[in-house]
């Protein structure tokens, strides 16, 4: 690990009352990596994502983005795509993507006019073309299929060029065929835009197909009388060497490792 | 075929909808004709001819005292009060509920107050309004506004607060400030709900209008009804009531149409 981490979590704890969700999470994420986070339900995957997103403040510990402590608030340096409700139903696809540009350039009216609007529109159109929504620019989200809505949500996030893109089970509600298309798309965008991505998923296969690094969250210790008193942390942290070719043959080997570690 | 599966076609729907109305009208005519056969001077259930005569005097001839055509002066005065009251209530509701719905500290501070005001029966405030604002237009408009605004505020603020949290988070990751979230995320999504709330508020607004006019006014639909009541002038009261119903239906229909045309994205979202 020679390069400086883009995101660094040091001794992060998340507690709700006396329930400990995450305990002692230490994590360095390198620029350009695609980190998949897997784990059983209730293991704090989404809590971890919320803390990184700034939606929640960790009870203890420090999170640094580019070496700077993170404000406990969401900001444009971290983009996000949720499983649902990620797009604004009252804006067309184009309006959804332009939203980020309008907020940045027009603090009071949050609307652009004339040349500035034209420029924002051109950028938004290019982004929509990049995610394959060239034909649906003027449709409202309710008129788009689930997969198209997720494409839109990704385009909307990417127009802000976030330092990190956070994906919270982004493909969980999609059909298998659509999901495969989305995998191709996100992999393409990841390499085209040199993104750093953190993705929470239920799907182990998806985690290994897409990720360059797979984190498994789970509880290290378990007290049967007070199960809520131990939190989850990263129990496995696997770095996959497949920078060049996503279909590289080391995949089965990696799955082997996961299996042996599971049995351990 | 089960009744739950019998969906009337459009033509059938109109026919079916008109049926009870026609039955009621015919029943009225039969009973009124019977009463007039017994007593040609019956005033309680006037025949259409008598209603037409009474109304044409009010609709087409200027009143000798005021120089105005009574029916249209009443309509204008009532619509002015109703429109102003509802307009003030709607605008207030929109601004207040946006702030309440989007900003948690404001909700914590003023939420209980709004709830408290909303449970006061507005008619109980009418004497206070008359004492404080006099018997003029202000008190009547204020009664309508105060009567319907709190309910609208509560409804729309709750609706805005219930917008998916993901949307607010997403807006922040796109760089939006609290102000921008209010005007670009919450406001447009609250608009269809606002129109819906106005439609529901129309009923109470009419109640408050007629009450205020009945107690203190010199012109207005409610004033006229309560005035001619002294002479048992059902030939004026019944057409006035029908006219109020027609106005209310037209307003409701216009609001529904506006909502459909102006917010196509809200189509098919169960609200």
UniProtKB/TrEMBL annotation, chain A:
<dbReference type="InterPro" id="IPR050093">
    <property type="entry name" value="ABC_SmlMolc_Importer"/>
</dbReference>
<dbReference type="GO" id="GO:0005524">
    <property type="term" value="F:ATP binding"/>
</dbReference>
<keyword id="KW-0813">Transport</keyword>
<dbReference type="Pfam" id="PF00005">
    <property type="entry name" value="ABC_tran"/>
</dbReference>
<feature type="domain" description="ABC transporter">
    <location>
        <begin position="7"/>
        <end position="244"/>
    </location>
</feature>
<dbReference type="InterPro" id="IPR017871">
    <property type="entry name" value="ABC_transporter-like_CS"/>
</dbReference>
<dbReference type="InterPro" id="IPR003593">
    <property type="entry name" value="AAA+_ATPase"/>
</dbReference>
<keyword id="KW-0067">ATP-binding</keyword>
<dbReference type="InterPro" id="IPR003439">
    <property type="entry name" value="ABC_transporter-like_ATP-bd"/>
</dbReference>
<dbReference type="InterPro" id="IPR027417">
    <property type="entry name" value="P-loop_NTPase"/>
</dbReference>
<feature type="region of interest" description="Disordered">
    <location>
        <begin position="243"/>
        <end position="264"/>
    </location>
</feature>
<dbReference type="GO" id="GO:0016887">
    <property type="term" value="F:ATP hydrolysis activity"/>
</dbReference>
<protein>
    <submittedName>
        <fullName>NitT/TauT family transport system ATP-binding protein</fullName>
    </submittedName>
</protein>
<keyword id="KW-0547">Nucleotide-binding</keyword>
Automatic annotation (TrEMBL), chain B:
<keyword id="KW-1003">Cell membrane</keyword>
<dbReference type="Pfam" id="PF00528">
    <property type="entry name" value="BPD_transp_1"/>
</dbReference>
<dbReference type="InterPro" id="IPR035906">
    <property type="entry name" value="MetI-like_sf"/>
</dbReference>
<feature type="transmembrane region" description="Helical">
    <location>
        <begin position="141"/>
        <end position="162"/>
    </location>
</feature>
<feature type="transmembrane region" description="Helical">
    <location>
        <begin position="14"/>
        <end position="32"/>
    </location>
</feature>
<keyword id="KW-0472">Membrane</keyword>
<keyword id="KW-0812">Transmembrane</keyword>
<feature type="transmembrane region" description="Helical">
    <location>
        <begin position="110"/>
        <end position="135"/>
    </location>
</feature>
<feature type="domain" description="ABC transmembrane type-1">
    <location>
        <begin position="79"/>
        <end position="259"/>
    </location>
</feature>
<comment type="similarity">
    <text>Belongs to the binding-protein-dependent transport system permease family.</text>
</comment>
<keyword id="KW-1133">Transmembrane helix</keyword>
<dbReference type="GO" id="GO:0005886">
    <property type="term" value="C:plasma membrane"/>
</dbReference>
<dbReference type="InterPro" id="IPR000515">
    <property type="entry name" value="MetI-like"/>
</dbReference>
<feature type="transmembrane region" description="Helical">
    <location>
        <begin position="197"/>
        <end position="217"/>
    </location>
</feature>
<dbReference type="GO" id="GO:0055085">
    <property type="term" value="P:transmembrane transport"/>
</dbReference>
<feature type="transmembrane region" description="Helical">
    <location>
        <begin position="82"/>
        <end position="103"/>
    </location>
</feature>
<protein>
    <submittedName>
        <fullName>NitT/TauT family transport system permease protein</fullName>
    </submittedName>
</protein>
<keyword id="KW-0813">Transport</keyword>
<feature type="transmembrane region" description="Helical">
    <location>
        <begin position="237"/>
        <end position="257"/>
    </location>
</feature>
